[in-house]
Every structure is written in C-alpha cells, then in structure tokens.
Amino acid sequence: MSEPLDPRLTPARPHVADLRLRDRVTAARYVAGTPRRVTAPSAPLRREPDPGAGLDTEALLGDAVDLYDAAEGFAFVQLARDGYVGYLPADSLGPADPEPTHRVTALRTFLYPEPDLKRPVLGHLSLGARLVATGESGAYLETRGGYVFARHCASVESREPDYVATAMRLAGTPYLWGGRTSLGLDCSGLVQLCLDMAGLPCPRDADMQERALGQALPLDLARLRRGDLVFWRGHVGLMRDPETLIHANGHHMAVAAEPLAEAVARIEAHSFGAVTGIRRL
Predict the structure, then answer these.
(1) Which GO terms describe its molecular function (predicted)?
(2) With respect to CATH, is domain 12-95 assigned 2.30.30.40?
(3) Which pLDDT score is estimated for 1?
C-alpha cells in the first residue's frame, strides 16, 4: 500500500496535478511541469492563491521551479530546491535559462540600475540569491536585472562549509514565520539556508529535517558538539558549541544564541515540549 502523500510536497490541487500523479490523485486535469526560474529578488510561497494566506516559505532570485498552472496573478509551482509546493506571484517567474553563474555571499546586497552606488536601488538581494552575470563594470557585476557589487558575490559553485558560522552571521535577523531570507527567518528556514550555503541538501520544515538529515543520536544533551541539530516537535536549532544553541525563535523574535539548558527548560514549559531528536551531519 502506498504511503500517504505529503500535501506540502505533492504538486496537486483539485483543478490541476502533476501528470506523474495521474494514478494517485484526482484532479480536473493533469499536466507536465514547465521549468521556470524566480526572477524577483525574493517571492512568497503561499498555500493558497490569496495574498492574505499565510507564508509557507520563500523562493529566492534564481531558484528553479516547475510551473503547473497560472491564473489571476498566481502561479502554482513546485520548488526544485526542496520540493515544496504552493503559489508564487506569477510576475516573480521568468524563463528557466540561462543557469545562474553567481550567488550572493553577503547577508544582503543591493541591486542597482547602473554601476553607481548613488543610484536609487531596484531592490535588495538576500544571502543565497543566485544571479546570471553577463559582464563586469568596475566593481560591479552586470546581471540580467541590474548591477550588484561584485565582492558581495561568488561563483555559484562556491561553498561556505562552516554552516554554524553562517548561522552566527545571521544572529539578530528578525523572526518571520515561513521566512528564509536574511530579512526574516524561521527556525527551519535558518537551518536550510545555512546548509544550502554549505552545499548540503536540506528539506524545508523541521519535521522533514529531523527525518532526513544526518545521523540520529541518543537523546543525551551532555554529549552534543558544534553543528549538531536539536529538534522539538515543530522546532529546530543548531549547536554553536556543546552548551550553546543558535535558533530563530519566537521568544526572542530573532535568530539568537543562548545556553541550551535555558532554551530546553523554556521550550518544554511554554511551547514545543521536550526535545524529540538530535541529528549529527
């Protein structure tokens, strides 16, 4: 018997579904996904085609998607990065080609209409955004959408293997449910962004991460080390060192580092209960 399909990862709605799901779901029509790429600095992915619907996650400039349907300003897509399904603003998408050449390595940087820091900016790009460089102009990369300060970027193949150091760079970033940019992050978005910068595939939500990442360890908080992931039911954090957790959380409403013992006691008493898992990458 087939396992139930996770709606977060299943490109199917009553009006349309992925052609490959014809034998598993009921829909008015079945289509093959059309490759597209995010051309906006970032784009909110929502569960429903409604600007008032909650934010599930965010796509960044350069992210690849499969497009299944577009109507009334929304595009029903599946993100290539992690398989997440939902609705993006239709105007945030463009052609799939060419492939990005660079990605942003600064926490955030600006997109300019000309290679001139005095010009009004077109928008901001987050850590991890990927862009197509078409040339250079002084200290700037020329891209398909504008100009970016070159030293804020690196080759798309570059890696930042110390994902804990990346998390510490993001300390102070405001908490945002569904956020995965350097303007706002939730707990699993922080983990996913940091692992992505290290070149490590990572699911989007905490429960998915607890099942998929690394090796499960015994629930012994006295034997943790830097880089271990600590999970609760609906929450995740990274160990900065054996005694210190860094996590995006609603208590601080920010990415914050704090003694693990304090976080464990507070979370058990007031929110997600006891620790459910430890994973080592």
Answers:
(1) cysteine-type peptidase activity
(2) yes
(3) 55
pLDDT at 3 > cutoff 70:
yes
| Distance (Å, whole) CA 121 – CA 147 | 10
SS3 content of the chain, % helix, strand, coil (to 5): 15, 40, 45
The CATH number of 102-155, from 3.40.50.620, 3.40.50.300, 2.60.40.1510, 2.30.30.40, is: 2.30.30.40
**Cα–Cα distance between 95 and 36 in angstroms, integer?**
5
The distance of Cα 121 from the centroid of its chain, to the nearest Å, equals 24
Please state the length of the chain: 281
Which residue has tokens 């490590």? 200
Range(s) of the chain covered by CATH 2.30.30.40: 12-95, 102-155
> Is residue 132 within 8 Å of residue 64, measured between CB atoms?
no
User: What's the predicted TM-score (pTM) here?
Assistant: 0.96
Amino acid at 169: R
CATH of region 163-280: 3.90.1720.10
The answer to whether the beta carbons of residues 146 and 122 sit under 8 Å apart is yes
Using pLDDT thresholds of 50, 70 and 90, give the confidence band for residue 43: very high
Which tens digit of pLDDT belongs to each residue from 240-264? 999 999 999 999 999 999 999 999 9
